[in-house]
Amino acid sequence: MERIALGVLLGYVIGSFPTAYLLVRWKSRMDIRNAGSGNVGTFNSFLVTRSWAVGGAVLAIDVVKGVCATALGISLGGGSAIAGAAAGVATVLGHNYPVWLRFQGGRGLAPAAGAVLVMQWMIVPLWCVAWLCSYTALRSVNPANALACMLLLGLAAGVPSEYSSRLLGAAEITVLRGFIIILMGLILLRHAEPVRDFLAGRKEKWQ
User: Fold this and answer.
1) Is residue 204 part of a domain?
2) What is the DSSP letter of 36?
3) Is 153 inside any structural domain?
4) Among 24, 51, 174, 198, whose Cα sits 20 to 30 Å from the Cα of 155?
């Protein structure tokens, strides 16, 4: 248990590294929390700086945060899927609610993708397809994020274990199912405001 707890603590610390805040501050001398949508993440980094390099760097580093923290959790837990899942969830929590930025962080998509890559990489392409379909239908980034996460959450909750284990080949399918449900819940929580704006017909804040 001590090693799992250490993995969770390190996962939060890794996740809380404020990638977007630091790179936007370096590039434009602006506080990303007070610019664009105010979200400390990939898309707002690009919108604020208009730099593909900055946006791409934020995305890559935040994905790597999820990969490293989850892999570290598995290593500390002696190969335990539960330890990896706990560290991955902690990483997303750190990204979304970083203590260094008074708990004002991102929406969790990039570090969650990194964590899922370690736990079961086959889910990430499925998630990307769900997002593309959602964006094609909605033509709005944050609502598309939310819909894709809802679709993945529904699959995780609704597909029987015998089918999902056959498709994904995961030995601990119950752990993976719970892991995906929790991650999608955390991401959806951070998308509540932009989704409300979309449903009310209001333009997204950067428009």
Assistant:
1) no
2) T
3) yes
4) 198
